[in-house]
Design goal:
With 71 residues, the protein is mainly α. Helix content is 59%, strand content 0%.
């Protein structure tokens, strides 16, 4: 699929990063898929997410409660 945008003062790489961050934040993609879309390693993508105030590790509340009760 080709997405054509009007002339913007933003690079294709920046658009990929913005898309990956937005999709990850909305829980539509995994950390690995986000890194792939953005063109970074998982660690670098996770660091970018942290700088943007997005926690890169997803942990379901049910799992947290279960782990707490089993500790």
């Amino acid at each position: 699929m080709l997405l054509q945008l009007p002339q913007l003062s933003i690079s294709a790489d920046d658009v990929k990063l913005l898309l990956a961050v937005a999709l990850f934040r909305e829980d539509k993609i995994s950390l690995g898929k986000g890194a792939e879309i953005a063109g970074f390693s998982e660690k670098t993508f996770a660091d970018i997410l942290i700088r943007k105030g997005i926690y890169p590790i997803r942990y379901e509340a049910d799992h947290l409660k279960e782990d707490f009760l089993n500790a």
